[in-house]
Amino acid sequence: MKSVPIMLGVCAAVLAAFTGPAAAAGEKISDGVVRIGVMNDLGPYGDVGGLYSVHAAQMAINDFGGKVLGKPIELLSIDHQNKADIASSKAREWFDKGKVDILGEVAASATSLAAIKIAKEKNKIVLLSGPGATRITNEDCTPITAHWTYDTYSMAAGTARAVVKEGGDSWFFITADYTFGHSLEKDAADVVKGSGGKVLGSVRNPFPNTDFSSSLLQAQASGAKVIGLATAGPDAINAIKQASEFGITPKQRFAGLVVPISDIHTLGLKATQGMYVTEAFYWDMNNETRAWSRRFFEKMKRMPNMIQAGIYSSITHYLKAVQAAGTDETGAVMAKMKAMPVNDMFAKNGKLREDGRMVHDMYLMQVKKPEESKYPWDYYHVRRTIPGNEAFIPLSKSTCPLVKKQ
Predict the structure, then answer these.
(1) Residue 396, in any domain of the structure
(2) How many other CB atoms are there within 10 angstroms of residue 283's CB atom?
(3) Same domain, 99 and 137
(4) What is the pTM assigned to this prediction?
């Protein structure tokens, strides 16, 4: 496990001057430095986040000018190995010894919930782009959490509803056996049944998993029209590949509930053509998304996915809030983050609600056939824009104790 400190034009001598006792007294920026700690996974989720997410955070800091309120911004990163205990212990270490001001990304639901617990204790902000569990903004909501990019409800609201509407009205779920997978299966199953479909069964697998043969045979035997993948990352990729090898598709169709564009790129259009996916961001949506994504590509040699774009957006919004608040004090910054709309290449008129959910439009995509793709990374037809108030759980149904019921 390695920490990877990334500093923007700040030498050790300058840092020492800023963090000394004399400089700390009366500073609007604690310790004279804004420290952002990106915590994610370089293993199973390394392809959807990992160093690509660190680079997106770096871009946000660079584009902001490397300073806020005249003070330098420092970026740190750590691989939590997708383990909640490491996420928890590293969050505590960063807050107590490293003087980190906020956590960014955190990558997975179980690790994020562990880190959030420490951040709440320390009154520090957490920006979440990779995690998907809806409990983050429901029963486990906190006043210091900003859940930015997507959640399992929004993915189900797009993909599951579209597939049922097209006749995919019987489902069998292959589910990752941890917080994120459970949440994704529940939310998708609720949408399927609410749309007039039925769930014929499910099977849970450890994460990560390389052999889906037994699960796929159970899905095949169920007779379901749709195999819902309540998993992500390499597990989703392996399941789709193995289904093709076993001849399960096209007799049954896959619904990729969380299959970002980076996974489509790995699998190829031949294996994924026609699949519906829900996305929060697509690099080829408009001139603004293309311009930012091409800058990302220059360094990383691949187009960004929604998680990486969300990290850039959330950190940019945080820095704008610090600037507007005139301090990095948590309460003042969170108040500004919730008061200010989110307007950037990721979202237009986005809103950070009292439950910590950043509400924005989502997009129902259909993967192109190979012959329809005209240039590299030209993978999607945009089938529908899903308004934010439809894509995310309405506050009237929220179980977050911070939400005032009317």
Answers:
(1) no
(2) 27
(3) yes
(4) 0.88
